[in-house]
Every structure is written in C-alpha cells, then in structure tokens.
Amino acid sequence: MNFSSTEQWLTRKILRMAGNPPFQLAVGRDAADLMTNDGSKSTTVVVSDRRMLAKLALDPEMAFGDGYSDGRIEVRGDLTAFLEELMRFMQSGEKAAWYARLRSWWLDRVNDNTTRGSRKNIHRHYDLNVDFYKLWLDKRMVYTCAYFPTTGATLEDAQVAKMDHVCRKVQLQPGEKVVDAGCGWGALALHMAKHYGVTVRAFNISHEQIVYAREQAKREGLSGQVEFIEDDYRNISGRQDAFMSVGMLEHVGLRHYEEFSRVIHRTIGDWGRGLVHFIGRNYPHPFSPWMRKRIFPGAYAPALSEVAPVFEPGNLSVLDVENLRMHYAKTLEHWLARFETSVDRVTQMFGPEFVRAWRLYLAGSLAAFRSGGLQLFQIAFAGANCRQIPWTRAHLYEDIQPAAKEEKWMHATP
Amino acid sequence: MNFSSTEQWLTRKILRMAGNPPFQLAVGRDAADLMTNDGSKSTTVVVSDRRMLAKLALDPEMAFGDGYSDGRIEVRGDLTAFLEELMRFMQSGEKAAWYARLRSWWLDRVNDNTTRGSRKNIHRHYDLNVDFYKLWLDKRMVYTCAYFPTTGATLEDAQVAKMDHVCRKVQLQPGEKVVDAGCGWGALALHMAKHYGVTVRAFNISHEQIVYAREQAKREGLSGQVEFIEDDYRNISGRQDAFMSVGMLEHVGLRHYEEFSRVIHRTIGDWGRGLVHFIGRNYPHPFSPWMRKRIFPGAYAPALSEVAPVFEPGNLSVLDVENLRMHYAKTLEHWLARFETSVDRVTQMFGPEFVRAWRLYLAGSLAAFRSGGLQLFQIAFAGANCRQIPWTRAHLYEDIQPAAKEEKWMHATP
Residues 6 or more apart from B163 whose CB is under 8 A from it? Predict the structure, then answer.
C-alpha cells in the first residue's frame, strides 16, 4: 500500500468506527493496485480523494450516503451484502462522534412533524412522479411491507395477502365505518371497501397520491364508498368502527405520539378496533441521518417501549403484535430487482445521482431488515370494552395454504 | 332508610370513590329492610357496623377484602358479577386517598422481590398443601392461564393446548436445551421433555412445588431429562437454546426487570428463542393492595411499556405478542366452580375465613379479566441473530380444529 500516514490514520479510524469490518478502504490512486492482489477481502470501497476520507471520519454515515450518491465513493462487490455485513459490524463499532450526533439532532429539529412540517416532509418523498413508483411497485401501488404466505409468492399476491391479513386482524364487517390514516395511493382503502363491504374515510397529505387514489376509486366505481381526504391525521374527526394505519407511524415522529394516541382513541372510543403497521426496532435508536436528510425527512422507527404509550393513555388493549421483518426484506428484494431493471428510465427521469441515492436507500433498507437493525411490527388493538375480539387467531390462517415445510424457517441471510 | 347522618355521609363517600355503582350499601341493622323493598338494585352489600363503614371510606379495597374475608361484609347477589360491575364503575371513581396510596407504597417496599424477599413471598402462596390445589386445578396441576382452542374445551384439554401453544411458539426441536423459569409443579417442563424431546432445567423457589415436581419426573421416567432446581431465577446459568417463563414475571417485580433481562440474554445469547407469559394491564397501575397483602405478596402486573425494556437491552426481537385475557377468564370460571364444590374440604383444611378470602381472590381475578382490568400476554422473542424463526404463524394452527363460527367472538361479559 502507498497511503500517506494521514490517510492511514483516517482509514484506521473509519474502519474502527465501523467495528473493523473485513473490507478494503482505498483512495482513488490505489484502487487499481488493490484489485489485483489480496483476494481474501470480498468488498473494496474506493474513495475519490483524501477530502472524502476526512469527511467519512467526521460523519461516516452522511458522508458515505452522499459520497455514494454523487459517485465519489464506489463499492466494488454486491452492495446489499456489503451493507448487511457493515451493519452487523457497526453494532460493535464506536459511538458516533459529536459532530454526527449534533447533525442528527439538528435534522430531527428542522424536520419536526408538525402539521406544517409533515406536509413538507411528505411532499419530498411521496409527491414524486407516480410513473417513477409504477416502475418498481406492484400494480396496486402498495408502498409498504407485503405479507408472503409462502416465500415463493409473487409481490402482487403478497400485497393482496397483506391487505387481507390486516383486514382479518381487525375483523372488518360489512357496513362498518373505517378510517385509513396515511392511505398512500389508496390500495388498502379500496381493497377494504371492495372485499369487506366497509365505508372508508382515507387521509393523506400527499397531494399527488390523493389525486391518484381518487382516480382509482372512480375507475373501480367505489367513489361512493371511499372518500379520499387530503388532510393531516390530526384532523381526523368522527366516530368509526375501526382505525387502520399502515406505514404512517414512521412519519408521525416520537414527539407527536401523544397526539396520534388521542386521535386513535377519539376515533374508536372504548368499543372499536384498530391496527397500526410500522417499521420499528429492537431498542430505541436514531433513524439513519442520511435517510432523514435525503430520502425520508422526519422519519423515525420506534422500539415497542416507545410505541406502547400510543395505546396506553386511551386504555386500549393490545391484542396481537406480529413481527414481519423478513417479509419486508423479501418485499425490498422485489422492489430493488424491479428498480434495477428500470435504471435507464429512472436515469432519464431524475439523473444518475438520484439513481444511486435510491439504490442505496433500497439496498440499505433491505440490509437493515436482513441484519435485524429494522423490524416490522403489526399491532392489532381494541377499545377497553370492545366485544368483537376473536377467540383465537386461527381465523387468520383458514383457507390459506400452509407454507411448505422447507419454507417455514425464516433465515436471517439469503 | 334509617342511616345516621355520619353513616349517610360515609356511604355517599364510599359510593363516590367507587364511581357511583348501582349497588345498595347498608349497615347491619338496615339490611333486613333493604331486602324487602327496592328490587331495582341487583346487589346489596351489607356492612356489619359503622366502624367497618369508616374503614371502607379510608382504604376501600383493603377494607373490603379483609371485611369480606372475616365476614363483616356480605355481598347479597352474585359475587363475580358484582365485582365485575364494580370494577367497571371504579374506572371513573376517585383516586385512592393518601392513606390507601401510602399503604400500597409501603406494601411494595416490605414485599420487595429481592432474592430473600422472593423466597418469603413465594412461600406464602405456593407452599400451601398440594392437596388443597389438587381440589380445583386440572390433574396436571397447571396454575396459569389455559388456552381453549374452542370455548367448550375442558380445562384438562385447555391446559395441554396451552403447553403445546407455547412450545410451538418457540419451535422446540428434539435435543435442544431449555430453561423453565418459575416451573410451578413441573407440568410444562415435563410436557416439553416428553412431547418435544428437549432437556429441561426447571427453576422454582417453592420447596413444596419442587418436591412434587421431582416425584412426578420420577413417576414419568423423565428424571434424566428434566432437572428440577430449587433456586432463584437470578442464579440461572449456562447457555440454553430457549428460555421459557410461564406465570413468573408477575412475581419478579418492576424493580427487578433489569436483572430478569440480563438473565434471559445471558441464557439464550444472540441466537436463542424464548417466551414469557404473564398477567399484564392496558396501562401502568398498582396491583391490588389487598391481593398483595393477603394472597400474592410482591405481585405486579405490568403494562407493555413496562415490560418492553425486558427485551430491549439484550437486542432481543419481539416476534409475537398474543393477548389471551378471555382465556384466563374462562380458566378462572373452571377453577372457581371446582373450588366451590370443594368448599367443605377447604373449610376443614384452613377454616371459613380462608375460604372467603380465596373465593374473593378467584372471583375478583375472574371479574378483572372479564372487565379488562387485567390482560394476559404471551410474548415470543428471539436473539438478534436467531435464524430459527417461523416464516408465518400458520404452524400454530395446523392440525387444530378451527373454532365453530359462533365461538369466534370473544365476549367481554358471559
């Protein structure tokens, strides 16, 4: 190697912060050399110059994300496998430096999910051209974790299975009134109306998604049964039989769980039921600062200790918590594969830097679900006096083919 | 009515503290009158004298429990139904007076579940003559919530179904090593060894229960496979594949969850699985002071926000939380009915005051599960790197007859 002593010091520091993973870290001029010898290390990260190295040492995650996106950092090898291994090593790495922690804290403040802040945050991600999302989501445009009854199910089928799974969990009955908080492009609201005979009020603050959802309702002849409302969850009013929220809690933000809790309780009272589906964690931890800056401003993935207080003030009973972490890994495998086949189209739409940033977001999320850094929780709950509670959960698995024996184990790595 | 003004004032105060339930409250000399008129109020509580009334006003729950036990308070009508209605009204009653709160706090201190304190607390309840428990438990002596695949299942079958349900949840495999923390009379440990081919180390600090369990192991030829150890859960050592604890967390005490958390993590590491089954609540609330004084010293039923920190420090993944509250109500219906048919035997054993105290404990618990004051949680979890996680939960319901349609709803009242 031909590193200067500063570069060597920075390299050692960066690797130590990451828990000393078995990767090569090289600056541009050495990269060619490295690739010709030492086959023992599977992945090489090539950094453009010494300035990038210094940035990595100061705020590793943010510098890596931005450097990877603008091409000053290159990962030679499988990106997802690299990120997954990195995440496992990072658990034993050093705590983030003061600068990175300060930046993370600051991001949290400026992206606070107030009524106004939420609009800005949601606009950034969900108001992107729908044609872009059509390239890699399923045909119903469900942008949340799917449920694969068997590991070989298609993404299309798994998204339908997920919608049925959550509807069964709250035992929707024909004629009931349901609120859908954070309805995306409307797939779940339409599914509930069509297949469970309920009336739905669906809320979302993404203008583009609401416009799309209304068109879909019209196309399917469900406009009379499903109302898509462009408004904040805090403005949900009126009594409903059930409260559904699939993939919105991540955008509520820890500081606003009390408001969210009050909205749920005033919606279902002491007699209704509900379900909240969200990305969580095994223990409290800040959400990736790079993701918060570039992909999901204001996002947070809570631990169960943090989310239990959503239910407790209203005397709501938690009935069922299911962890579907590996189902999200599989969902992301599908999304990433479809994204990769559409790279030319996405490049035309948004340019190469966007492609690399979104590849990192999708691969990083996949790696996080595989390594256990992220979990996916579905929590079914009911008001304290609710009588419509199934005696057992067997009804969730009726009419569903049991998974083949070899598919019954969830493997942490592929 | 013929109350003195003091008695009227005390009566109004007591009823207000209880949320003004629709009951009659009378002192001895008026009781006969009351029973002849006013058929509109279903239950009458007859109090022996004015002193008892004053005690009820000062510390209602403790006074009621002790007064009911020693016969100075009489409930005319169905005891369980009365308690259930009372509990519903009490939710809107006044906060306990300073004296009752102080007494509750003091009980918590003197009955702290230290290693020494736990021995004393457990001895009080579980070292009672086994012949007493044989009168009203199932034949395998399972003293925890059963699992009724259908509401009509027998108690005997429902206790076996519960043991299978928890074993399936942790996917026990032949040859694995399992620890059972708080093993009671040994039924689960023996069931796991016999039907799942695992080796079990089972811990309990009740001497009488351990003696009984060892005899059972010998009788069933399982002494080589199941070791019953008379020791505190804090002294569990060695690596195991799975950690089971059914009905012990209630006796660990909130102040000792960190110790409990460390024991679990050092037992299963990052690769094992486990299950904790316990009586909980919708939100944090002190455990009944009378129960803590007379029946279960040191007991506490935690909310999920309080128990999540058992798993978080060890980076354990919560995989599945199931609320079986109404299954405990049904279990208690069976226990109470068997207890009532054995009242003469119990009176011979321990006298009439014991009978009344235990009737109140069983009926009060049944009422609490029916009214939602208590919940029953089973939490299945795994180490962060565990790969033995089922893909879905369908396997829990294979080979099990789905409940008949009319049995699928859990009703909060019978």
Answer: B142, B187, B188, B191, B192
Q: What is the pLDDT along chain B (414 residues), one digit of tens a residue?
A: 455 788 889 999 998 988 888 888 888 866 655 554 555 556 889 999 999 999 999 999 999 999 999 999 999 999 999 999 999 988 877 777 787 888 888 888 889 999 999 988 898 899 889 999 999 999 999 999 999 999 999 999 999 999 999 999 999 999 999 999 999 999 999 999 999 999 999 999 999 999 999 999 999 999 999 999 999 999 999 999 999 999 999 999 999 999 999 999 999 999 999 999 999 999 999 999 999 999 999 999 999 999 999 999 999 999 999 999 999 999 999 999 999 999 999 999 999 999 999 999 999 999 999 999 999 999 999 999 998 899 999 999 987 544 443 444 444 333
Total residues belonging to chain B: 414
Q: Which residues pair with B381 in a beta bridge?
A: B274, B318
Reported as type and span, the H/E element at residue A412 is none
Of B91, B305, B390, the CB nearest to A410: B390
d(CA A301, CA B109): 37
CA-nearest of B165, B164, B390, B171 to A403 is: B390
Q: Would you give the distance in Å from CA A355 to the centre of its chain?
A: 18
| Chain A contact for B28 (CB, 8 A cutoff) | no
Residues 6+ apart with CB under 8 A from B197: B173, B174, B175
From chain A, the residues in CB contact with B149 under 8 A are: 392, 394
Q: Which of B383, B329, B307 lies closest to A321, judged by CA?
A: B307
Asked if A20 has any chain B CB less than 8 Å from its own CB, the reply is no
When CB atoms are compared, the residue of B149, B318, B408 closest to A304 is B318
User: How close, in Å, is residue B230 to chain A by CA atoms?
Assistant: 33
CA distance A337 to A133: 13
- A94 has a chain B CB within 8 A of its CB: no
Q: For chain A, how long is the longest CA-to-CA vector?
A: 73
| Cβ separation B394–A394 shorter than 8 A | no
* Residue contact B317–A409, C-beta within 8 A: no
A interface mutation test: which of B392, B393, B400, B407 has the most A CBs within 10 A? B392
For chain B, say whether A385 makes contact (Cβ under 8 Å): yes
What is the fold of B115-407?
Rossmann fold (3.40.50)
Rounded to whole angstroms, how far apart are CA atoms B234 and B205?
11
State whether residue B406 sits within 8 Å of chain A by CB: no
Q: What are phi and psi of A379, to 5 degrees?
A: -115, 115
Domain coordinates in residue numbering, chain B = 5-95, 115-407
Residues in chain A: 414
Give the C-alpha separation, B404 to B348, whole Å: 42
CB contact under 8 A, B372 and A385: yes
B331 — contact with chain A (CB < 8 Å)?
no
With CA atoms as reference, the chain A residue closest to B369 would be A384
B153–A contact, CB cutoff 8 A: no
Please give, rounded to a whole number of angstroms, the shortest distance from the CA of A49 to a CA of chain B: 36
Q: What CA–CA distances, in Å, run from B147 to B308, B329, B401, B408? A: 23, 11, 14, 14
User: Contacts of residue A414 in chain B, CB cutoff 8 Å?
Assistant: none
Query: CATH for A5-95, among 1.10.155, 3.30.1050, 2.60.290, 3.40.50?
Result: 3.30.1050
Minimum CA–CA partner of B387 in chain A: A411
In tens, the pLDDT along B109-162 reads 889 999 999 988 898 899 889 999 999 999 999 999 999 999 999 999 999 999
Contact A389, B376 (CB under 8 A): no
Instruction: Give the separation between CA A93 and CA A111, rounded to whole angstroms.
Output: 27
- Cβ atoms of B414 and B317 within 8 Å: the answer is no
- C-beta atoms of B394 and A403 within 8 A: yes
